[in-house]
# Entry
Amino acid sequence: MNTAQPASGRSKSWLNLQGPHAEAFRQLTAGLTPEQILVVPLDIGKNVHWAAFHTRDGRLLTEPLQLSALQEGLARFTTTLDTLIAQYQPRLVILGHEPTGIYHQNWAYQLLQRYQPQLDGTAAPRFRYVFLNPHQVKLNRLQTGCSFSKSDLLDLGAIGDLLARGLGQPAHLPASTAILIHEQVRALRTLQQEQTRHTRRLLTTLDQLWPNAFLNTRRFARAHPNLMVPPPLVTRPLERKVVQALITLCPNPHEALRLGPQGLVRLFHQHHFRCGPKTAAKLLDAARRAVLPPPDLANALTSVVQRDYARFQRLQQDEAATLQALETALPLTPARHLLPIPGTSVRLVARYVTGVGEPQAYLFADQIWAKAGFDPLLTASGDAVVSGSISRQGDPFLRDTLYLLGYQLALHCGYFSHTFLCAIAAGKSPVEATIHTAHQVNRVFFHLLQHDEPFAPPNIPNYPAFAQTWQAKMQTHLKSQRRRGAPKRRRPRPTQHT
# Structure
C-alpha cells in the first residue's frame, strides 16, 4: 500500500523502493547499530499476553514474558522495559502489537500515556509505537517457518521481525466520540441482520396464514408468463398500515371471515386503525380465494406471527434509537461536513467514517480505496502489462458503503452526477460508472475529513448553477432509461469486474 510511485504519480522522486514510510524509518534508524535499537513485540490475547525484548538483529535481552492481562501484568511489563532501558541504554525503542479486537485498547491507552514524552521526542530514548496488521503477522510467520503452525511464541517472533523492519502504522486510539460511532454502526449492522431474519420468518408465517395474499407480482409474471397473475392484497406488506393492523388485531383469516366486513371495520376503528368497506372487502376476498390452513393450525400460527411481529417492532425501535445516537454524535466530528452533501445520510456517513477509521493514518485517498478492495489487480512482466478486475481483497462492508455512496450521490448531487454521466458517455456501464463516481466520492470525503472543511468545489466558479444543470441532466438520463424498460427502483451492485 505504501510502495513508491514514479514522478507522474503522487511522489515526485524515488527516495525509497518501499515508499515514504520506509524512508522515514530509514532516517529514524540512520547511524544506529542493532545494539542501540530495542525491539519490544507484544502478543495481545484475551486473558494472557506475551512480550519479548531483543535488539534489532534478534538477540534476546531476557526470556519472553508471559503476562496477565490485569494490572499486575502491565506493571511487570513496564518495569521490565524500564529496567532494560536503564541497563542497555538504547537510543530507539520500537514497540508494537496487533490491534486485537477490544483486548489491546486498555493496554494501548496506558502505554501511550506512560511513554508520551518518549513518543513526542521530548525525552530519551526515542519511542516508536505501531500497530501491525494481523495478516502481515500471519504471512511473516508463514514465510519464516514455511509452516502453518501457530503459537504465541511464533507470533511474538513474527511481530518482532516486522517491527525491526519498520512496518506497521503509528499507534493511535480514537476519541470517545469515534468509538461511540463505531459501536453504533456495529449495533446497526447487527440489528439489520436480525431484521432480515425476522422479516423472512414473519412473511413465511403470513404466507401460511394468507396464501398468495402478498405475492410478488413482478417475480411471478417473470417466472410464469403463461399464467394469469393473482391480484395481491398489498405489495411490500410490512410497510403497509393495513397489514400492520391485520397482524396486530386479526391475523387469523378464519376469524376475519367470521367477523365479516362490518365486524372488521368495527374492530379496526375500535383500535384507531383506518379501514373502510372497500378495504374490508379486499381482505375478505383474499381470505376466500386462498386455500386456508385448518383452524387449529391457524390458531397456532396466529400466536407465532404476533410474537414475531412484536420482535420486529422492537428491532425497528432499536434501529431508530441507534440512528438518533448517530445523528447526535456525527456533528461533533469532521464528518459533519459530509452530512449536508445531497445524497448522503446519517447511516451512510457513519458507515464510511467507521470503515475508514482515522483519516490521518493515510497518505492519500487511494489507500482507502485499496482497503475496500476496489484496487485493480495488476500483472506486469516484461512487455506485458495486464490490469484485471478489482482485487476484492479488503473490507467488503467498506466496499459496499463506497458503492452505495457513489450511487446515491450520482443521483442527488450535481457535482457527482457530472462524473457519472461523463463515464456513461465514455462507454462505461452503469456499474462501472457508479464505481468511477465512488472513487471520486472517496477522494472528496477523504479531503474533507483530513482538512476538516465543508464541501465547496474550488474549481467551479458558479457551483449552484453547475449542480442544478447536471442534476437536471441526471434526471433526464434516468427518464430515458425508464422509457427503455429499465426497472425504476433497481440498483445495480458491484461485481468482480469493473
